[in-house]
Amino acid sequence: MGQANSSDVWIKAEGLSKYYGSFTAIEDVSFDVKRGSITAFLGPNGAGKSTTLRCLTGYLAPSAGRSTILGHDMATDRLAGSRQIGYLGESGALYPDMTPASYLRFSAETRALRGGDLKSALDRVADLCQLGEVWSKPIRKLSRGFRQRVGLAQALIHDPKVLILDEPTLGLDPNQIAVVRDLIRSIAKDKAILLSTHILQEVAAMADKVILIDEGRLKFNGPFSDLASGENLESRFREMTGGASA
């Protein structure tokens, strides 16, 4: 079988390391995410996931290594790379007194969308994220599930090729989780999605590839089927992160 076209690699980390004095936050973390992949970035709390994401997106300068988004070096060409990224943080970063309509318009304008392009973007994410019934309601009055959908809509407003999602289903009830999962799967074909989580059910439900990090170091990087391969996923996770002896 031939190698995948390098142009399909839309997210790439090469030897990312971050040191704070004698403390090693992450060390020599390398992986890539290809177009059409939902890749789970998995690890226990404190494993180094957030530090890796900040280095990957250019928000934090690594002590060593480099990251690229669609070929843009995030140390030297961050603005161009950032235009290709949609990001959903764990908290959602919503403004409670705004409505989805006003918040998403604001998000679109910060991405330099104007006129017809802005209207088309708003219509697209309102339909994709099923926000019609809450479009003009204050965000503070929305359920956690709808707030998460609004957060996803802002990540998608500029139709990015790369999506980085930090715990996108945390705190949702089973029905809300199903809606968010379906939404993520529906847009995966033409995007590279990196989904940071410590919820093993999300990995099994959505990911085709897994990156596992623990204590700042890469423990696994490959297809989900190779990680689970006949074993209970929770047992495998505990084995690879030292939890089996806890």
What's a quick, concise take on this entry?
It contains nine helices and ten strands.
Secondary structure blueprint with pairings:
Elements: E1 9-20, E2 23-34, E3 38-42, H1 49-56, E4 64-69, E5 72-73, H2 78-82, E6 85-88, H3 100-110, H4 115-128, H5 144-156, E7 162-166, H6 174-187, E8 192-197, H7 200-206, E9 209-214, E10 217-223, H8 224-228, H9 233-240
Parallel strand pairs: 3-8, 3-9, 6-7, 7-8
Antiparallel strand pairs: 1-2, 1-4, 4-5, 9-10
- The average pLDDT value, as a whole number, equals 90
Q: Strand portion, in percent?
A: 25-35%
* Spatial separation of the terminal alpha carbons: 42 Å
Please count the beta strands (DSSP E, at least 2 residues each): 10
Q: Which bin fits the share of residues in helices?
A: 25-40%
Q: State the order of secondary-structure elements, H for helix, E for strand.
A: EEEHEEHEHHHEHEHEEHH
State Rg.
18 Å
Strand order of the largest sheet: 6-7-8-3-9-10
- Put simply, the count of helices is 9
